[in-house]
Design a protein that fits this description.
Length: 132
């Protein structure tokens, strides 16, 4: 937030109070939007408001940085978990579809490689013929 935005937010906050006296918003230089208020208490309150606004911005920046670090960590974990070429992910326990595919290749009963490939293809779904 720049100075003008902070002062505008401060003045809106003050004006939200129905008992607020508008004269307290008079400034030492009416032509300069960023000049000090004539009332000392209004200036002191503005200083506190400004400090709070700056602290809030810093907290937001710190939260953003923390979230970005978390995103970067998750991306690194995802990259580390990538499956190497020639490997596929399959369920720990064979599914019914995988077992059926293994049995359907019964003409090659003694050929475990054919049965295994049929089961892997079933686990990968239709159209995945990348297993040789």
């Amino acid at each position: 937030m720049n100075i003008q935005e902070t002062q505008q937010a401060y003045e809106e906050w003050l004006q939200a109070n129905p008992d607020f006296d508008e004269e307290l918003l008079q400034k030492s230089d009416e032509d300069d939007e960023c000049s000090e208020y004539l009332d000392d208490e209004t200036n002191s309150m503005y200083s506190a408001f400004e400090a709070g606004a700056e602290a809030q911005e810093q907290i937001s920046l710190n939260e953003i940085r923390a979230k970005q670090r978390e995103i970067n960590d998750l991306k690194a974990k995802l990259e580390a978990a990538q499956v190497h070429e020639g490997f596929v992910l399959v369920p720990k326990e064979p599914t019914g579809k995988m077992i059926s595919a293994g049995y359907e290749s019964k003409e090659h009963v003694n050929n475990l490689i054919v049965n295994y490939k049929a089961m892997i293809e079933a686990a990968q779904g239709e159209g995945h013929d990348n297993i040789e």
